[in-house]
Amino acid sequence: MKIDHPLPQTIREIEHLEIPLPDGTRLAARVWMPEGAEARPVPAILEYIPYRKNDKTLERDHARAPWMAAQGYAYVRVDLRGTGESEGLMTDEYTETELQDGCDLIAWIAAQGWCDGGVGIVGISWGGFNGLQLAALRPPALKAVVTICSTDDRYADDIHYMGGTVLGDHLSWASVMFGINTLPPDPAHVGDRWRAMWEERLDRSGLWLENWMQHQTRDDFWKHGSVCEDFSDIEVPVYAVSGWADGYCRAVFRLVEHLKGPVKGLVGPWAHRYPHLGEPGPAIDWLSEEVRWWDQWMKGRDTGIADEPPLRVFLQDHARPQTHYDSREGAWIDLLAWPSPEITREAFALDAEGGLGKGGKDGILDVCSPLWVGRHGGKWCSYGHPGDQPGDQRREDAGSLTFETAPLDADRHMVGDANLVLTFKVDRPVAQVAARLMDVAPCGAATRVSYGLLNLTHRGSHEQPETLVPGQSYTVTVPLKHVAQTFRTGHRIRLGLSTSYFPIAWPAPEPVTLSVVTPESWLELPLCDAVPEAVEAAFGPARAAEPLALDVARAPGATWQLYEDVDTGRLGIEVTDDEGAATIVRQDFFHGARGQERYSILPDDPLSAEGETSWTHEMRRDDWSVKTVTRTRMTCTATDYLVTARLEAFLNGECIRDLDWNVRIPRNHN
């Protein structure tokens, strides 16, 4: 990454600023702005998230915020109510209170002497979500949005549910926030109030997983904050960004298709990361691209970005299957519209002899997958960590029903979302199907290109699921994730179908036999034979400001291990996510965090599924030290999900909180 030093103009940083809200609550902010902005006001960019501006995100913020400020913007990084040094309490994501606070923040920023009255909002993940949600509320000072790795649909396309199945990342994400919600404000900024603020968080933030599990269908809880309910609510320009390895790439295509105002989409090969930190690479000079967007819509400069094609994607070449990529080969291509007239949807029939193509022998094929299918699927949302992308799919195929083309006689380029039209019968009232699309090399190695999940009780609606009648025939469409991928000449395209995909998806309560009616089932692929010309020099190399000075005690790292207990037959995955530990030199503030996840199951008993997570956080300065430990465990019966959790909080080595949860949530067609 290119480090810009010195920056093109002097930057003023305000380490801690308290912003008053109309109800008297004060939110904590860190602000970077050009020196002299009070005399020569500039537009402001807001990033509004719960991840602690004073420590957890400071390294990342320090690499981008000063750089943006040097381009003539005030960068305002605000902690949500009840997080970091902000007052109040946070009890869930994207609440009405959070969004009203956001509107009030935008108005406050616009009224400051250093702001010219215009505000943009940017964010990745949480900040990408609430950026869209705030845009839909139309605060007058909001001029433009950059939303990265986010979604327009909180139920159908978020970390909680996929195709109506309960995601394993649902537990993982809940445990991340369980840990973050235990952290205190920094006494250096809030003084003696810190302990009362901390204890309120410990006692009242709650167990979010319990709440989320009580909403297993697409009810009003998930519709709130889902801007797809009415795309016309968003009128300001929106730049939507994601990556193929990210969980959220589908939203980019829907936003480009449905937003009526200026909109631009970008999808690279990346996991859940900012594009200038993109992995798998190539990372890009995203900060310059972002400034082009802000300059166009907030400074009135013609940067040319408004005249460019609305969608740019990275067309991936074949890559051998592996669970982590440093970089992917491919090329950037532009699409003049979405849906694109350059793309044709071609049907590949499933036949009873395992063929995938123009049709063949008719018949009905059965599959009842062992529950180890899915162990090589990676995470629903990859973070670019070793192990969290799918490995060689031949092991998964051994427990699946597979259909395969003949070797391709020419390169085929897929751009968009595949669909599986599936006619089937089942022998149980609750069932699910996982569909995997693979690129099979001549040597036999199978790389997963895309996949989709569907809880078959949701075949008509995510709002009103209906149990299945054993033996009755149904036809459904299973949507697969968008991707842009070249299948090379001589390779084969393979479809794999399984009745489970744990731990990406929690299994149905009973083993299920799925009977696929091949004459009435086909795979629909979006193919582009005349692939658009590659965009030469689409982006420069990644760049950023000077890195934050850290005294590193433990480097970040991640591990992903598969295991098998040969005595019991239990199969599992153990994941370690170590955020590392370091002292922020200029603040003399030490912080560290380490998470662990463990998922396991018996190969023939869906009620044996277990998920266990834990997070340990530590913070200290001088003679003040805090440590919190959170643990969550999820199991199930045929009728209920069972969740136990524990929170321990320590001040200077003394335990001041030891809280437990033990809840039972009825299964609802899951």
Give a description of the structure.
- The protein is an alpha+beta fold and 670 residues long.
- The chain has 3 domains: 2-151 and 229-335, Alpha/Beta hydrolase fold, catalytic domain (Rossmann fold), CATH 3.40.50; 344-527, Galactose-binding domain-like (Jelly Rolls, Sandwich), CATH 2.60.120; 549-666.
- 16% of the residues lie in helices and 39% in strands.
- It is built from 11 helices and 33 strands.
- The strands form 6 sheets. It has a 10-stranded mixed beta sheet with strand order 2-3-5-4-6-7-10-11-12-13, sandwiched between helices. Strands 26, 27, 28, 29, 30, 31, 32 and 33 form an 8-stranded antiparallel beta sheet that branches.
- Strand 14 and strand 15 form a beta hairpin.
- The longest helix is centred in the first third of the chain and has 15 residues, at 96-110.
- The mean pLDDT is 97.
Can you tag this structure with a few keywords?
eight-stranded antiparallel β-sheet, Jelly Rolls, Rossmann fold, 3 domains, alpha+beta, single chain
Give the CATH H-level superfamily of the largest domain: Alpha/Beta hydrolase fold, catalytic domain
- List segments where confidence is low: pLDDT < 50 over at least 5 consecutive residues: none
Distance between the termini: 45 Å
Q: What top-tier CATH class of the largest domain fits best?
A: Alpha Beta
What is the topology, as strand order, of the major beta sheet? Answer: 2-3-5-4-6-7-10-11-12-13
What's the overall average pLDDT, rounded? Answer: 97
Helix content: 10-25%
From the 3D structure, determine the CATH topology of the largest domain: Rossmann fold
Oligomer: single chain
Number of helical stretches of at least 4 residues: 11
Estimated share of beta-strand residues: 35-45%
CA-based gyration radius: 25 Å
